[in-house]
UniProtKB/TrEMBL annotation:
Plays an important role in the elongation step of protein synthesis. CDD domains: Ribosomal_P2. The gene is RLA2_2. One of its GO terms (cellular component) is cytosolic large ribosomal subunit. This is 60s acidic ribosomal protein p2. Residues 91-102 have a biased composition (Basic and acidic residues).
Length: 114
């Protein structure tokens, strides 16, 4: 998931075709472990594909699959490739952002003079 998150961060940063070096730099910047096999696998699966289309396809697959839960991400990635993984990361990142926004709001509920 770290590799996919790094790929998505590169995309969000404006790099429409991130390389393995780009992903390594992002992972190094946060002290994450680098797995060369996963980097190469992801890049080979998304090569020549539009990230927006991958995310849309992954969302559609998740919505149409009534028997698959988010906990089965590993099995679905084997069957459906990187598309499901990219969609799952996007969903998880959105949830994390929402949690962070909620916790940030709670931090401001204090008085300087109490």
């Amino acid at each position: 998931m770290k590799v996919i998150a790094a790929y998505l961060l590169a995309q969000l940063g404006g790099n429409t075709n991130p390389s393995a070096d780009d992903l390594r730099k992002i992972l190094n910047s946060v002290g994450a472990e680098i797995d060369e096999v996963k980097i190469e696998l992801l890049l080979s699966q998304v090569k020549g594909k539009d990230i927006t289309e991958l995310i849309a396809a992954g969302k559609q697959q998740l919505a149409s699959s009534t028997s698959m839960a988010f906990g089965c991400g590993a099995a679905s990635s084997v069957v459906n490739g990187a598309e499901n993984n990219v969609a799952q990361v996007a969903v998880e990142e959105k949830k994390e952002e929402e949690k962070k926004e909620e916790s940030d709001e709670e931090d401001f509920n204090f008085s300087l003079f109490d």
